[in-house]
């Protein structure tokens, strides 16, 4: 049964129609570029429509708010791919591969997107939740698998807080990038891995 006023059915809300052909991908790509350039706060549907050469009506038929559009865009962006699960045989090798290749901390697009969202994430609960569930979750899953294998290989001591350890590398790199203004480089990533992550992974064995 359908509610005439809302378009909803007994099984849930009406699904918004997808944009035909390759236009949806073009709109999402344009959205990512606008986020990276202007930031979330200054992004408007008008700006995205202009960048994508689409009508604003087309955008609103598919996405009811800019939060929906932005989260959809960054979750599927070509420049922000979910990293492949890497297994080089060592924690060091896995972290280097994850952090220094396409989609890692040295890639311009993922870091630009994060920069564009930072000011809004701490005060927009809906954006924060969607960002965590759709953008961060699959990436955290890859990181968790890397650390789980390191535990099985015996590279991480039993007394180490793995949950804290697994977030340390991105925390340090993001602090350098957005607080200190230091561009992430392979050299910086290696310094953090070799001087912070690996010694901490050895726990009390290293002390």
From TrEMBL:
User: What InterPro entries does the entry give?
Assistant: DNA-bd_HTH_TetR-type_CS, Homeodomain-like_sf, HTH-type_TetR-like_transc_reg, HTH_TetR, Tet_transcr_reg_TetR-rel_C_sf, TetR_C
Keyword RNA-binding in record? no
Q: Which residues form the HTH tetR-type domain?
A: 21-81
| Protein's UniProt keywords contain Nucleotide-binding | no
**Which positions does the record tag as DNA-binding?**
44-63
List UniProt keywords, sorted A-Z: DNA-binding, Transcription, Transcription regulation
Region annotation Disordered: where it falls in the sequence: 1-25
Give the top-rank taxon of the lineage listed in the UniProt record for this protein.
Bacteria
Record-given protein name:
TetR family transcriptional regulator
């Amino acid at each position: 049964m359908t509610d005439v006023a809302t378009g909803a059915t007994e099984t849930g809300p009406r699904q918004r129609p997808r944009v035909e052909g390759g236009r949806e991908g073009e709109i999402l790509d344009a959205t990512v570029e606008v986020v990276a350039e202007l930031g979330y706060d200054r992004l408007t549907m008008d700006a995205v429509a202009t960048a994508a050469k689409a009508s604003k009506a087309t955008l609103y038929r598919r996405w009811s708010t800019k939060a929906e559009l932005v989260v959809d865009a960054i979750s599927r962006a070509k420049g922000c791919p979910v990293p492949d699960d890497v297994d080089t045989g060592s924690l060091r090798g896995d972290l280097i591969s994850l952090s220094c290749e396409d989609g890692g901390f040295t890639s311009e697009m993922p870091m630009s997107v994060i920069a564009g969202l930072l000011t809004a994430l701490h005060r927009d609960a809906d954006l924060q939740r969607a960002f965590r569930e759709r953008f961060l979750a699959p990436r955290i899953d890859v990181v968790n698998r890397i650390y789980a294998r390191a535990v099985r290989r015996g590279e991480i001591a039993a007394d180490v807080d793995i949950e804290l350890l697994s977030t340390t590398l991105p925390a340090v790199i993001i602090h350098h990038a957005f607080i200190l203004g230091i561009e992430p480089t392979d050299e910086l990533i290696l310094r953090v891995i070799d001087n912070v992550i690996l010694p901490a992974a050895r726990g009390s064995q290293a002390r």
